[in-house]
Amino acid sequence: MDGQRLLRMVKSIGNFFKLIRWLDLLFIALIFFLVYQQILTHFYALDGTAMPISTLEYILISLSFILMSAAGYALNDYYDYGMDEINKPDKLILHHKLPYKTGLYSFIILITLGIILSFYQCLVWKNGEIFIIYLFIAAMFWFYSTKYKRELIIGNIIISLIAALTIILPWLIIIFEGMDAHLLPVSMWKTMNFFIFSYAFLSFFITFAREIVKDIQDIEGDKAYDCQNIPIKYGIKTAKNVITILMILILIGLIYISVRLFSSAYNIMGYFFALVLIPFGIYIIIMTLKSKEKSQWKNLSDTMKVYMLAGILSMIFITI
Question: What angle do helix axes 3-19 and 55-79 make, rounded to 10 degrees?
């Protein structure tokens, strides 16, 4: 193989990883790791109960979700090509750096691999419920890109549900297997569930708020392709108000969680929520109210992503 062909191959591989948004996939992998290590394993250990699945089994079932997510990103770029030509022409991968059909073919291959991997692991566990959940997730990725992304609110809800599922799915896997093996952390049950559903709540609402910000950012291309979303249907001012309300709900949730943490053995985590996440959330509200230009909405979207990362990393303090 000559140098030119090797260079083209390396560029194609790099562009493929951009297509499937490898940084977002790393973020999902981080969530799966922290939920497993900092919440599930931690509270099982405090209860003195053995984990119902091995680390390797958890890695395989996590990889299945990551493959499905990669498939969803590729399909999204495939169906959004026309809108992305208007909204972000400098970031187009398909038809510019990779053949246009790569988006569809990547979805088919990656979603199939994800389904096969989840089917294999669920077959080993003899657990059809978990496999049905994975089929439902695969269907959500397909219907979001092909239909619901362009419809009012429902597309935002689907993405927000997937974000919450990233937190809840590891818990569901452990619980389903734990019930079958009679291995549940009885004494730590309420505390473990408090953390799982607190993070799921926060993930749902911050994702919902960020999706509306992205809708405002991409309003020109979305209008050209007859999309129906909050900024297009009700105007940017109403969209701002909705984002603000969602952030206020997040702040109320953070205040409630902080009070619970301070009244328990998790003071350090409580300080992180009270001194970092709550002021950071207020700052995002201020940014929302001030944003007018497309570049400002882009900065707000990026800031929200950092906020998500800070929230997820707060799981580290559970075991301190």
Answer: 90
